[in-house]
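Quiz preparation item.
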């Protein structure tokens, strides 16, 4: 009996692990930096609920930063959708229990912050708009951004720009800013 229970538990755990969707971040975005990606439209035509087709980005922000996330397709086929989650000191590596981009539930240990879908006209004349959304960072730390192809006419490329964040402590941009300030003070 115990062996059957242990085997059943092992099978349940293994099947739970099989459902896990690992997050592979494309890049860490700095203020105003343009990132490029490519979203796939899955065979069922709905990328909103297909984690294996999502693309992930991240950035660091400090509490009070006014953040804008702008996702623009570079070709007419995809229907872009995006959401941002606060992760704190470490970024998630698995998207579960998240089942959709637009559902407001993010990866374990994260908090939903904001999302966008059809917020601004695209440069192709529709039929869909592109995500453009803003929020004030409530907490200092890492943020994860997911991008997907909701109900597009096919796969396609996009650009993403996150602006308004303060550089992460220890980053080259933050150190350059401190170094530049020191050089300015030294000259006087």
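Solution:
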């Amino acid at each position: 009996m115990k062996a059957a229970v242990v085997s059943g538990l092992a099978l349940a755990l293994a099947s739970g692990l099989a459902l896990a969707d690992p997050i592979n971040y494309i890049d860490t975005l700095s203020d105003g930096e343009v990132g490029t990606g490519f979203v796939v439209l899955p065979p069922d035509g709905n990328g909103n609920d297909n984690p294996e087709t999502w693309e992930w980005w991240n950035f660091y922000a400090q509490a009070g930063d006014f953040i804008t996330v702008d996702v623009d397709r570079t070709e007419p086929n995809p229907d872009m959708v995006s959401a941002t989650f606060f992760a704190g000191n470490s970024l998630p590596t698995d998207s579960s229990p998240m089942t959709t981009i637009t559902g407001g539930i993010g990866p374990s240990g994260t908090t939903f912050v904001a999302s966008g879908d059809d917020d601004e006209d695209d440069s192709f004349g529709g039929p869909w708009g592109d995500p453009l959304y803003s929020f004030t960072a409530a907490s200092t730390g890492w943020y994860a951004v997911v991008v997907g192809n909701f109900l597009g006419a096919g796969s396609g490329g996009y650009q993403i720009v996150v602006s308004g964040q303060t550089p992460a402590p220890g980053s080259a941009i933050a150190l350059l800013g401190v170094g530049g300030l020191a050089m300015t003070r030294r000259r006087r």
